[in-house]
Amino acid sequence: MISIPAIKPNRPIGVFDSGIGGLTVLKELVDLLPGEDMIYLGDTARVPYGARSPETIIRYSEENVLFLMNFGVKLIVVACNTSSAIALPKLQRKFSFPILGVVEAGARTAVKTSRSGRIGVLGTEATIRSGAYAKYILTLNPRARVTAIPCPLFVPLAEEGWVGDRVAKLVAERYLQGFKSRSIDTALLGCTHYPLLKGVIQEVLGRKVQLIDSAVETAREVKELLDGTGLAREKDSGRLRFYVTDNPDKFMRVGERFFRRPITKISKVSLR
Ligand code: DGL
To answer: What is the pTM of this model?
Structure first.
């Protein structure tokens, strides 16, 4: 196990993702915790993680944590659903400081929200194959009926900005038809990119289905953890710093739609 010296409230929060998508999680974190300094790492050279093997996702995730540790972070948020679903338990065993993923917070809220226990999960291929969301939902409610569907094309659609047109609608109808026969009442958006497609997903599933955004739930959990452990930083405005492993220009251009704020202070880094 790799340990770090005593954790202090003034240290930054580290956040990593396979690329741009984790900015939806960072956005919620900044909204809820405006006084915190945050360091975001987007592994844009190796995105997407969602189509890779568990071994590769674990290796990339460990390298991301090691990079963020250089900044003396007090906590790491694994914003990437794919990394959270596959690598989080390994990361938590290997490193002796708080590392939070997005799976548990999203699953908990889905279980609380669903009246019928019929819950749909959407995610990348790797996330759905891992069964992590379904497993966690079933530990909280063994009678839940989980239907999980991989929706890989949602990632490029969100990055292209094609989120409200006919193309998005057709893709959503095709992916989500599997939920219709299962009468789900709750759908968990288990991927960083899917909040951008909330409108079309809601339209296809109908108003009666509640959408759960893992990003929002994770930010709440991080706040609770910091407040509960005396690690919150009591300042007015925190600083943000961005690191990417490739193509900072694209990250800034596309990322602003995910982050809904300007992205400045960005550097390209190599993780090896
Ligand atoms: N960030 C990933 C996730 O949330 C989506 C993009 C990828 O496949 O790397 O699962």
So the answer is: 0.95
